[in-house]
């Protein structure tokens, strides 16, 4: 039975891509793994085609051969919320398209790590949430990346509750020091662990790739 994983965060810019890349590199030693970024903003044109840096990093860390459009079916140029980027580009994001590309990746791999856009409650469109995407892909387990810093305990607990309220299982959480100073890092780590448990707990210090 597959145990594909949806990677989300307590907010945007908390290091989801960095963490997903580290996990892909580690897991690639024992199985066929591939990363997927269904929707990405802040993309640049390379040889006339939009490419997102996060998606490219996932491709480099994967050990499964897949073309760019399969890993990232929706790429938008402006670094704004996907909902607005898609609207401005005149593109309709369709869950069925994401599901088709996901199915292609599952046929070639043992595990797919799907990185969401923004935090768990960041809308994908006016009518599609992160939960809708994960549900359409048949993914039950969610990995939460917690950006450590002032207010991180609240954000971690609130996001965990939202994940579970949507009917998903919080597989685990990963603390990520996002480059800012956390004046009470150890206490914050202990508080989150006390509330969310220590399952699948890892700790990464953020280093841009």
From TrEMBL:
Residues at which ATP binds: 13-18, 54, 115-118, 176-177
Binding, substrate: 41
Gene3D superfamilies annotated for this entry? P-loop containing nucleotide triphosphate hydrolases (3.40.50.300)
As cofactor, the record names: Mg(2+)
Biological or metabolic pathway of the protein: Cofactor biosynthesis; biotin biosynthesis; biotin from 7,8-diaminononanoate: step 1/2
- Report the superkingdom from the record: Bacteria
Enzyme Commission designation: 6.3.3.3
Q: What's a Gene Ontology MF term here? A: dethiobiotin synthase activity
Q: Where, by residue number, is the active site?
A: 37
EC class (word): ligase
UniProt entry keywords in alphabetical sequence: ATP-binding, Biotin biosynthesis, Cytoplasm, Ligase, Magnesium, Metal-binding, Nucleotide-binding
Subcellular location per UniProt equals:
Cytoplasm
Specify whether Membrane is a keyword of the entry: no
Chief location category: cytoplasm
By its UniProt entry, which Pfam families does this protein fall under? AAA_26
The family database entries (InterPro entries) matched by this protein are listed as: DTB_synth_BioD (IPR004472), P-loop_NTPase (IPR027417)
The reaction(s) this protein catalyses: (7R,8S)-7,8-diammoniononanoate + CO2 + ATP = (4R,5S)-dethiobiotin + ADP + phosphate + 3 H(+)
- Any transmembrane segments, and where? none
So where does Mg(2+) get bound? 17, 54, 115
Q: What does this protein do?
A: Catalyzes a mechanistically unusual reaction, the ATP-dependent insertion of CO2 between the N7 and N8 nitrogen atoms of 7,8-diaminopelargonic acid (DAPA, also called 7,8-diammoniononanoate) to form a ureido ring.
Query: What is the protein's quaternary organization?
Result: Homodimer.
What's the family? Belongs to the dethiobiotin synthetase family.
Q: What is this protein called?
A: ATP-dependent dethiobiotin synthetase BioD
- Species: Aquilutibacter rugosus
Lineage, opening ranks: Bacteria, Pseudomonadati, Pseudomonadota, Gammaproteobacteria, Lysobacterales
